[in-house]
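Recall the central idea of this unit: under ordinary conditions, the amino acid sequence of a chain determines the structure it adopts. In this exercise we apply that idea directly, starting from the sequence alone.
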Amino acid sequence: MNGEFQPEIVLDHICKLGEGPVWDAAGNSILWLDILQGEIHQFNINTKQHSIFTAGEMVGCIAPREQGGFVAGLEYGIGFIDTEKKEVKHFIHPEEGLNNRFNDGKADAAGRFWTGSMSKTEEENKGNFYMVDTDLSIHKKIENVSISNGLAWNTDNTILYYINTPINYVFAFDFNMETGEINNQRVVVDLTHEKGFADGMTIDEEGMLWIAFYDGWRVARYNPVTGDLLQQIDLPVANATCCTFGGTDFTDLYITTASKGMSKEALAQQPHAGKLFVVKNTGIKGTPAQKFKA
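Accordingly, the structure predicted from this sequence is:
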């Protein structure tokens, strides 16, 4: 099950908390974040050029905007980022006064932006999960979240999948694409007996979920209908954080990892912790990132 997948190091840069990979098809580039350093990394797989944009605050997630640049969940609210003009413009901060930051987030097929928050000290039940509509209005969807993570929609946009990391379940909600309403929360994958914690997530064309496991040394593919484990990619580092498909035909799986909080001994044993990995030619197609229509 594992032998067919060979993770390769994309480049030798080490992130403290690598996260949030996004494939830019037009630019033939993979983008990813170092949340704690406030960095957006971009690597062109053709030219091998690596650039870094520093936002000046923690960056939890980015999603491409239809009109260019990105919408981002940040340390101090939600904003637009233009990496070429080197600009960060905040437009809303629903958690002002709380010791929180934004974490994972993505746009849906209707062009709305979904992002959740978490306590900077990882205190439980302090975060919330929001939807930002295309008119920039914000709507709280779930309260008392610990670490808002792993987001994906099924192919016909009737189900939203969501991870609240410490609980170690993948939840599903009925999703109304017209209104953005979510309801009928249920558990579709129970990971409570698995090694590590469910972190970031992506979905493939077959509707299967790919989940990165923090302190779990792997990324694994699950069937959300049956809850079954289908495939697994073993990594040489413990802290896998997120994954996304990219490459010319969306069959390359990019995996971000973290090195934060590791002892000198652990770092010596895992010299590649915090690097970006890729598994090329998985034979499985991913889905492109949706764009925020605001």
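The chain has one helix and 24 strands.
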